[in-house]
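During the reporting period the student researcher (J.K.) took over the structure-prediction task from the postdoctoral fellow and processed the backlog of single-chain submissions. One of the processed entries is reproduced below for the supervisory committee.
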Amino acid sequence: MEFGEKVEDNLRKEIKEEYATDVLEFEFLGYRDVHRTHDGKKTHWIALDFKVLVDALKVSNGEPHKFSEVEWFTLQSLPEKMHSEMPRFFEIYESRIG
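J.K. obtained the following structure tokens:
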């Protein structure tokens, strides 16, 4: 986030940059204190968690230098390889994102 930027505006900007589409609706789910070790260094960051609605037909990879493709999954068919914080995210919000 940039100094002075509203969280909701940053959400819209990041979705536009990363997925090349607009946010149609969003719901703030909550936040998580994330403590982990990355490259041997302890880190602490705050995750602001949102449920976001986009038009799936308009989504594309807006940052191919960061990730190779965008794919869709159901909650029952999630890939094995995910960000290390995704299991915790699903544990907390499962009842609100299904």
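The committee noted the following: Residues 7-70 form one domain.
J.K. will present the remaining backlog at the next meeting.
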